Amino acid sequence: MRTRLLASSAVLAAALLGGCVAAPPARVVYVRPPPRCAWVPGHWRWTDDGYRIWVRGHCLPVD
Asked: What burial letters (b/e) apply to 26-41, b meaning 16+ CB within 10 Å?
């Protein structure tokens, strides 16, 4: 009984240590360069009926 417990503990310890030896592969993250643009912030636009609508901000390309 004691030998079986010792053997299972040794197998468990070997499995835990064996998993820690190999480092995970390096993660490569590609970052796209920011576009060359001028940011136009969002704003409220009045309509002919007197209602306001929200115009989302957008990017205008700059040459």
From this structure: eeeeeeeeeeeeeeee
CA dihedral 48, 49, 51, 53 (to 10 degrees): -40
Terminal CA-CA length for the chain: 79
Whether the full predicted model's pTM is greater than 0.70, yes or no, is: no
Q: What is the pLDDT of residue 18?
A: 61
Q: pLDDT per residue over 13-31, tens digit each?
A: 777 666 656 677 888 888 8
HEC letters along the chain? CHHHHHHHHHHHHHHHHHHHHCCCCCCCCCCCCCCCEEEECCEEEECCCCCEEEECCEEEECC
